[in-house]
Amino acid sequence: MTELQSVGLRLEDPNAGAASRRGGAGPSDHKAVTIDGVTIMVPVHTSTAWHSPFVAHSPDGTGRSALMRGTIPIASISFPKAPRFHALQTLEGIPYSHIATLHGADVLATTVLQTCIRYESRKKTCKFCSIGQSLAAGRTIARKTPEQLAEVARAAVLLDGVRHMVLTTGTPPTPDRGAAILCESAFAIKAAVDLPIQAQCEPPDDDRWFERMKAAGIDTLGMHLEVVTPALRERIMPGKAGVPPSRYMEAFKAAVAVFGRAQVSTYILAGLGDTAEAILSISRELIELGVYPFVVPFVPISGTPLEDHPAPSPAFMQSILQPLGAMLSAAGMRSSDIKAGCGKCGACSSLATYEREAALATDGATS
């Protein structure tokens, strides 16, 4: 899985299963693929994927497809079908898929605010980000109201068995950095359906927002570092670098006190220049604080300033994920214990596999 997520996948039938995603926030330029009962997100629209040694044959009558490496069959795979709720629309005629989408196998995800003060400035934008692409292409709407989100969430649970939800947002020009609109959204969703929710935003200016978010029905919180080396942060994400890692660490500590150990996480993009040692070093600090470091391979998205940046090699990813999985296992932090969100889903990284392998090795050594 690590190699597949690093180098991507070529598709004989691009229309197999649920539609792949282009642009927007989250796992963009990916397609959901199920291997051995585990659904992962695999790059299919990147330049790396176009030259990948992995090819998925067209599905047969049962929906199964042969995953090939050159001429060698590797595995039998399938593609999750399009969710039924995607066929619906609001009374105003807005397709449900423009309000929230299915990620992985059973996660509903949305970007509540599809605009961002960082993205709108060439000097401040995160160079890997494509949050505005899906909006420009007419595949989403700029602001999802609490009522719309509640309506779609209820339908996704009833029709497709969605088990948890991710609410992320572009950063608005307010000191709370999106916490307020996430609170409004979560409160409405929880009033409509019992669905665990992860909210994602930059650290707000006031730690009291964490209590408000918890009270609104948010179960877990993601505050994403993405890049950990200060000089790289300033070059790759100049606007977001204005919130230094030290503020993130303060916010992490305060958030863990509210949400609990392993219920606060951070996304780290491996392959943008941070060394494996730098990522593992900060991951140790995060784990000590009770924060789950969700490390994923960087995916160069078409149309962004980093579209030609190489994806990380499988060996580089393994050099991070294997020891990180052992660290998480030793700390008793399991992705399966996370109530909602990216770490629980795990589709964008093979970290959970290494975490489980480390746990099995420990159990075997003590038995």
TrEMBL record:
A single Pfam family, by name?
Radical_SAM
Record carries keyword rRNA-binding? no
Alphabetical UniProt keywords: 4Fe-4S, Iron, Iron-sulfur, Metal-binding, S-adenosyl-L-methionine
Q: What is this protein called?
A: Biotin synthase-related enzyme
Does the keyword Iron-sulfur belong to this entry? yes
Q: Name one GO molecular function term.
A: 4 iron, 4 sulfur cluster binding
- In this chain, the stretch annotated as Disordered covers 1-30
The record's section on SUPFAM superfamilies has: Radical SAM enzymes
Q: Which NCBIfam families match?
A: rSAM_MSMEG_0568 (TIGR04043), variant_rSAM (NF045502)
The Radical SAM core domain covers 100-337
Q: Which cofactor names does the annotation list? A: [4Fe-4S] cluster
InterPro entries in alphabetical order: Aldolase_TIM, Elp3/MiaA/NifB-like_rSAM, F420, rSAM, rSAM_MSMEG0568, rSAM_sf
